């Protein structure tokens, strides 16, 4: 098991497949993009599948979420999903995507074994989408969402970040649209994970603001608090049901004490938290040539590059997971890597 010193057990693995993206969301990356990882530094498809296999068969991972950057930009995505679906025990698999290109790939992803998608969409207005993402691709996202629903990648969840002065007046319209289209909407509080370090607590739209805005048009009933479990979204029943809306209040109501996540970056680093400032290198172990003990003379644990050794390094990294994100600590330091490079 991946257990930490606070007794939390990680069963949910987020795998970043690339740090690249075809959008430039203002809360995520600058207009000019970022210094992308070099190809040799990225894990290969085989390496990713191997790490997922180790996580599922040796470390108790039951949920795998592929993310990025934009995971649909990874050429081998369908093959990776297909191979992970054959693992025993089979993990539940989902994808977090901006939806561009999903129209083309949704059916193939479903056939490969993907269970669900989360599609990010912050606005119903094409002009606001262009301002927020710096790209004119609103229609592609809407089409991607429909294709995901039609392919049965359900429940289709929609992730929305509200930005002051841009789309903060859209919460009720987005919820009405989501209910009508059978998508589950989840608002995410903006976090200090942008490459430009432009986040300000003062200006951010809080979960409280979002709920207040939604209540101008909908009756919201809180789901029993026990249902939140380790899921970061607190959910509300909309107008008596059956639809729900979620709010991920990572800043104002953090859920660190129930966190069940472990993260793998596209270059093979384990991170115990989005806000961790330390990483543990699994790629070096993966790529190490089996040397000492490869002939069976040493303990399997000591064999460089063996599954046992990689599992041991991963467990050790998780053991050191901090109690919380530290966002409320005056000494909080934003991690060096932005969200797009960690895997959101
Ligand atoms: N490109 C894909 C997408 O946008 O869905 C996957 C990666 S993206 C980093 C994952 C999620 O993180 C998206 O829903 C995005 O809106 C969210 N996100 C990015 N930067 C954020 C920030 N600073 N605060 C809160 N959420 C953020
Ligand atoms: Fe790309 Fe997702 Fe970041 Fe937007 S939030 S720039 S879509 S990685």
Task: Quickly describe the structure.
The chain has 344 residues and is α/β, with parallel strands linked by helices. Helix content is 28%, strand content 16%.
Give an overview of the whole structure.
The chain has 344 residues and is an alpha/beta fold. It has a single domain (2-278, 315-342), classed as TIM Barrel, CATH 3.20.20.70. Helix content is 28%, strand content 16%. The chain contains 10 helices and 14 strands. It has helices at residues 45-58, 77-85, 102-112, 126-133, 138-151, 171-181, 207-214, 283-287, 307-319, 339-342; strands at residues 2-3, 9-10, 12-16, 63-67, 92-97, 116-120, 157-160, 184-188, 220-222, 234-238, 244-248, 261-264, 269-271, 280-281. The strands form 2 sheets. Strands 9-10-11-8-7-6-5-4-3-12-13-14 form a 12-stranded mixed β-sheet. Helix 2 links the parallel strand 4 (63-67) and strand 5. Helix 2 packs parallel to helix 3 and helix 3 runs parallel beside helix 5 (138-151). The longest helix has 14 residues, at 45-58. The radius of gyration is 20 Å and the shape is globular. The mean pLDDT is 91. The site of iron/sulfur cluster has 12 residues, from loops.
């Amino acid at each position: 098991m991946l257990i930490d010193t606070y007794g939390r057990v990680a069963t949910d693995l987020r795998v970043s497949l690339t740090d690249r993206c075809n959008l430039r969301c203002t809360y995520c990356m600058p207009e000019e993009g970022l210094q992308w990882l070099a190809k040799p530094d990225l894990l290969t498809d085989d390496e990713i599948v191997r790490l997922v296999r180790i996580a599922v068969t040796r470390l108790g991972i039951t949920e795998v979420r592929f993310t990025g950057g934009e995971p649909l930009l990874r050429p081998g995505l369908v093959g990776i999903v297909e191979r992970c679906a054959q693992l025993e025990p089979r993990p539940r698999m989902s994808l977090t995507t901006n939806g561009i290109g999903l129209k083309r790939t949704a059916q193939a992803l479903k056939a490969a074994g993907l269970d669900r998608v989360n599609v990010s969409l912050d606005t119903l207005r094409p002009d606001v989408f262009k301002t927020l993402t710096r790209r004119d691709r609103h229609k592609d996202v809407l089409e991607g969402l429909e294709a995901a629903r039609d392919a049965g990648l359900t429940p289709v969840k929609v992730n929305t970040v509200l930005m002051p002065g841009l789309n903060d007046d859209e919460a009720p319209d987005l919820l009405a649209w989501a209910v009508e289209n059978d998508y589950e909407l989840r608002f995410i509080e903006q976090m200090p994970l942008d490459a430009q370090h432009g986040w300000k607590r003062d200006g951010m739209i809080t979960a409280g603001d979002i709920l207040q805005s939604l209540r101008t048009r909908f009756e919201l009933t809180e789901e029993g608090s026990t249902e939140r479990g380790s899921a970061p979204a607190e959910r509300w029943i909309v107008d008596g049901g059956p639809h729900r809306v979620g709010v991920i209040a990572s800043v104002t109501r953090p859920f660190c004490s129930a966190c069940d996540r472990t993260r793998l970056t596209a270059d093979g680093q384990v991170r115990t938290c989005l806000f961790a400032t330390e990483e543990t290198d699994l790629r070096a172990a993966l790529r190490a040539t089996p040397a000492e003990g490869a002939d069976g003379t040493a303990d399997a644990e000591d064999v460089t590059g063996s599954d046992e050794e990689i599992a041991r390094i991963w467990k050790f990294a998780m053991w050191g997971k901090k109690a919380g994100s530290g966002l409320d600590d005056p000494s909080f330091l934003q991690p060096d890597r932005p969200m797009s490079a960690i895997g959101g």
